[in-house]
């Protein structure tokens, strides 16, 4: 049976998706789209990887498939087994879909503050969903700790996406390789936000290896961080310091996840919500790209990096998921106005 990594390699070789016995062949191999407005604005070529096109609608399908494959390989996940995970939603969606395709049950622990659309979609696809109050990581009631305890108590497999290096390894082998091939090995910088760090770390490691293999300069790796996250200050000064808040979901951290440890990061940009939202709205209405808040933040960071590097550079980023997942928040003028955030002009 084809597995994600092999399937993605097959797409690379043939340019089209193989006939497959399961969902895996539909994960990855996403288009890299030239973002016209940001490119014209900066004189650079700014590309967004269309991860909203994955079957579960987000970049996290890749991590979910890689984590399940690794657990099958090491024997911890047995036929008919159960996977437990704490997630902002997208990893839960990926795990549940891949689990459905392969006969595993999924118990998903999620903070109740996440978008209604993700919660309803998880229920729709058959996840055993446990909503918990949003708590900081140091609190034992935090969703990550609840999921770990639940897995321990029930003897299920804990996906542990933050520290499970199968997550970044999946991105190293697929996302990074696709980006390098899609830019013909001419990539000057990559910007990406961090939830677990799997995408940023895997792409950073993969691009470094591929650039070295081809005798090219290693692309500059820049963390895109929302307000309220400690990673910006960690990259800049080595200290974890949090400041402000953000309505973006799935990104920002108060600690350094295992997937991010030891990863070469050249710089960081801290992007306030209005700047990220501007990209969400502009890309939708001018270029037909419906994206979520973290994708808008990634594009905003790519624009800043393009301006700093100067015209003529090629920069890639990740369009992590789609706008429909946040209809009740990012596209809800009442929600936005209550927070003094810009609203989409065509909805006002
Ligand atoms: N954007 C969204 C919408 C997400 O759900 C996530 C995952 N939590 C990310 C970005 C971050 O991806 P990663 O976990 O690979 O850092």
TrEMBL record:
CDD domains to which the protein is assigned, alphabetical: CBS_like (cd01561)
SUPFAM superfamilies: Tryptophan synthase beta subunit-like PLP-dependent enzymes
Sections of the chain in a coiled coil: none
Gene Ontology molecular functions: cysteine synthase activity
The EC number(s) this enzyme carries: 2.5.1.47
InterPro entries reported in the protein's UniProt record: Cys_Synth/Cystath_Beta-Synth (IPR050214), P-phosphate_BS (IPR001216), TrpB-like_PALP (IPR001926), TrpB-like_PALP_sf (IPR036052)
Keywords for this protein: Pyridoxal phosphate, Transferase
UniProt keyword Transferase present: yes
Annotated Tryptophan synthase beta chain-like PALP domain residues: 25-321
Gene3D superfamilies hit by this protein: 3.40.50.1100
Cofactors, names only: pyridoxal 5'-phosphate
Record's keyword annotation contains Signal: no
Short name of any one Pfam family annotated for the protein: PALP
PANTHER family hit by this protein: CYSTATHIONINE BETA-SYNTHASE (PTHR10314)
The protein's name: Cysteine synthase A
